[in-house]
Design a protein that fits this description.
Four copies of one chain form a homotetramer.
Chain A: E1 2-5, H1 11-25, E2 28-32, E3 38-42, H2 49-56, E4 61-65, E5 85-87, E6 90-92, E7 98-102, H3 109-121, E8 126-128, H4 146-159, E9 162-166, H5 173-179, E10 182-185, H6 193-200, E11 206-209, H7 216-228, E12 234-238, H8 256-263, E13 268-270, H9 272-276, H10 279-291, E14 296-300, H11 318-331
Parallel strand pairs in A: 7-8, 7-14, 8-9, 9-10, 10-11, 11-12, 12-13, 13-14
Antiparallel strand pairs in A: 1-3, 1-4, 2-3, 5-6
């Protein structure tokens, strides 16, 4: 059982809640710190009605989650109003669908400028691009590193875009946060808890990508790592899961989008590029995500996909991104949304 | 290597193709019968350019598939023009999205009439409903059987709908084909080859549902079992696959829809009810399918889901189906389609 | 809730149980027939303690399964004593590990005789071999059919072996049962319920292979289809499941063996050939199965794997099968077993 | 194409190899540093026979891997002789099976001493135990941290055991390496590349656990991250993968053990505790691993599993561990091994 403490509770009151819970069940542990969100975990107490009522009644308690789930702060049950996360001119979770576009990896100033041009032309408000690249093989292109970050910043500023880019380790957080507007936690880092801790302790918004093997509960548990450290600006991203079917790179779990929207107040976007791994499938996948209620899309665009240093087969050409944007503009009003 | 024989080829010509292939490779086998589609399988010959050219050049050969795939007749490479399958007033694969609706299982005349009413009100042209139900446990409700078939026929006639219903074994084919307009092969039967053979040897259109662990190649291989027996009226249906994620009943593989449309000329529809198993997720899943290019939807509707004898949690109420139809009518014109 | 009726119960007593359950819960359905196993399903009754006690107390009731599982007759909770299934000289579930060996498909008398020779030399008591082959593509070798059955019977008789072979449809059951000693239900047929019904209504033992996507509950539910029709001679076979990992053909779920032994009284064997699809991995997989407690092994052996018409890469050569048998004889005494 | 440079090659020779490859293909990149292993990646060159021969012939080239795999240094093709990794008195990859045992998490000195006692009694040479615990929920017990490390060190010293414990982030590496004998990379960190880099740049042996959705290629790619940084002491550990089947916590991929032994020269052990998540299944899974050729086992033992702070249901009692060790001692001689 997880118990959310009111932010206004005094230390005496918190101690009292702990004592009540311990008396009834034997073990209760407090997480969080004064001034931030605080949660009490009570062990093995899912079915004790009497205790539930006693703890619930306490003035220091905001909410009790009796189900055995790994998250509290991300829960819509706890926080029913949808959260809006602002990055530059974008409002994730607002009426407009947010579009982030750019290359898989930053390769050169020219490549990035041409991708940014395509992004702007298609109505994007964020420029995506990897400076630090997690790669399966140590002998693959690992990204331009800090140089890539600077290219991203300069190009985004030139085109009036915000920057979202991946951070791979706690040590990188300060330098990435200094140059980017939004920090991406990649799918391979979804349970890199020291990294979640680090981005939770700074102020820039976080784009949290689902791991290729994350259950919905694990995904939201990871969101709570960030939220519980004090950073409320978290956007979730469905990007395909790994299944038996290898006809496409991943299986795009489009239904996770409305399911997450039911379970959490956080904005939910989709990455149809990684979800499909194949340019010809990105457009239908992007339309499907929008129709399923996604708050945004993050899409790979490359001026010359055939020469991309990573993930070329899944990058759209600028004209294809524009065509997709046109389709989205035609369909979104049916759901009361726009691009 | 698979070689498709022209329908106009003489027996002498067919023998000649077999002889050429055997001479070059050692083994060639002829499948199919005179008057129907015929295919020659040449063993282990994917890379021999010379033979390819020699066999290709023969007047009896329509097409050669050098890649190692289990299907020929379903392939868009062989048959580039999209197939339209007509069932009652519905045209699967035409410009209009086809809607099939009805209960999971036929339970009573009253239940079926109210579901049919909802189907018609929402623009459906087919009534779905199970008379023979494949159930994991022998102690679960197994369907009303032949009585259910008659109820389906009578109700569909009353409301001007066509009937689609599942057939579970070769012996059932004649009696189901006598009363239904379209025979459904359920996901558990996707590799029940004697059953595919039986529905391939009769004339009623077939709705072939993907198995919960079918690869795309296996799915199309099963379609070829039906097509190769002489029945060209096959509609494919994506209905969710089984993955590690059990937050929903299945994982709806929405990208399989555009992928199948690339690989095959057959119509492709979606079953968002089984794909999600949860009524609140059926609507977004249905919208996603339509946005991804589905040619139709098959949806469970029940006048009183709480009392359904099977799969109640995933059935829409009539008002919910109507609301979905309204959403679809608003969004489909963006893709040049209608409901 | 599932209620097993005593075989000695009178019809009046059975009606009384149904009436009690209905009074308390609203719906109760009787499955099975007089003289055979009979089960009552009571809807939605997992938590009602009072009813449980009342129904349990009835003289006609043998056992009540309160958990929501799809099987009763296969359950070790219901039938704690391990079942032994006899086929020829083999005792599945006895102290000796049973070995079945032979080719994937029957190809010729010579091939089969050489495989049978290898089987006998390695201590096998059953000859396996497919006469009817379920194949993904309609253009693949489909087996020799009835001719293959006769070859199996004659060769087995010559070498003093019993025959186990696959049956694919209800209509084939009589002719396969006439010639084989044990009927195999292949993994693609695990939820072919009309076929399970058919093999349940005849007397020959059944080898039930797990489907590549079967959960343990579904596997045992399928076993109950056979058992509930009156045939108690069922042997289960783990043969690999389909997962994200395609480095090998399937993922051998070796832990399913001890798990099944806990849940059911039926014998459990393993098929390391299909589980791995690679001859060099069959031996370690077979040893692992034996160490995990398997009651038997079914292994593909071919006199000339390179020329096999199906599944050559996973077939052992006769000398490799003999080497495996030698390893098994060395390790089995550590578990109080033998080959 | 990956090219392994001889450790004796001069810089001029290395440059020459790069130039040759670039001339033929356009792009070649050098990884590694002088004195350590160095690899050249040549882009898109898998099929060019002429180039292969030209590059191969160069005196600076040790080996060329033409297949598109993400690893070189871990490959048995490159390094055919099995590697032995020594930790304390243990020799991973030698004739004796290595046993590591201990609690999931370090909880107290008393708990740890009783677990160590059980480990020693069962023939273990390493004490396992988590001081830093990766947990799905931020509100779960996160381990005792540095205090836990000191308890591990003191207890291990008292009982003559070596310590293996998890490290979760690059910053933790120095303090964990100072107190432990072997650093564990947990399954959630399998693609935490900055962490792999950090353990690759220090000298203590590394226990690399497979991720729950790692392919074999990805697993060995991660091993190469460590090896390429200069640390050759890597032991691989299969610990169960995530599949559709949730009857047990994970699906133990026992066949990965012999498959890895074919592909890599590194020692391979198994973790039957996490693979099954259920104490009653740990023994058969451990026996299966040993029979499949595992070089060691890492097993959770707890003096009082019912009161464990994490993963109690999968911990063996001391007597159960002893019983398992007795079984292993009886069976291992059949494979020419011992405990």
């Amino acid at each position: 059982m997880l118990v959310l403490i009111r932010s206004t509770a005094s230390e005496t009151e918190v101690c009292d809640v702990l004592a009540r819970a311990e008396k009834l069940r034997g073990r209760a542990v407090l997480f969080g710190r004064v001034g931030g969100p605080r949660v009490v975990r009570v062990e093995g107490a899912s079915a004790d009605e009497e205790m539930l009522r006693s703890v619930l009644a306490h003035v220091a308690v905001e909410k009790v989650l009796a189900r055995d789930i790994p998250y509290v702060l991300a829960s819509r049950e706890v926080h029913p109003v949808s959260t809006i996360v602002r990055v530059g001119s974008a409002e994730f979770g607002g009426p407009a669908l947010v579009l982030a576009a750019g290359p898989c990896a930053v390769e050169s100033r020219d490549q990035l400028r041409r991708a940014a041009e395509a992004a702007v032309a298609s109505g994007a408000s964020l420029l995506r691009g990897g400076a630090f690249k997690p790669r399966t093989s140590p002998y693959s292109f690992q990204g331009l590193g800090v140089e890539g970050l600077h290219l991203l910043r300069e190009t985004a500023d030139e085109f009036g875009l915000a920057v979202v880019t991946e951070v791979m380790s706690p040590e990188q957080v300060p330098e990435v946060a200094a140059l980017a507007d939004m920090l991406q936690i990649g799918s391979r880092s979804i349970q890199n808890f020291p990294l979640l801790d680090a981005v939770g302790r700074q102020a820039k918004p976080v784009l949290l990508k689902r791991g290729m093997m994350s259950t919905i509960d694990e995904f939201l548990g990871s969101a709570d790592y960030i939220l519980s450290r004090g950073n409320p600006h978290v956007v979730l991203c469905e990007r395909g899961i790994r299944t038996f079917d290898r006809a496409v790179r991943n299986t795009f779990d489009v239904v996770a989008i409305p399911l997450l929207k039911q379970l959490t107040h956080l904005p939910v976007i989709a990455d149809p590029s990684h979800a499909t791994g194949q340019a010809s499938l990105v457009r239908p996948a992007a339309r499907a995500a929008a129709a399923a209620g996604a708050d945004g899309l993050i899409i790979e665009v490359h001026p010359d996909p055939a020469r991309a240093l990573s993930d070329g087969p899944q990058a759209l050409r600028p004209a294809e991104l524009l065509a997709l944007a046109t389709e989205l503009r035609a369909m979104l009003p049916a759901f009361g949304r726009s691009l």
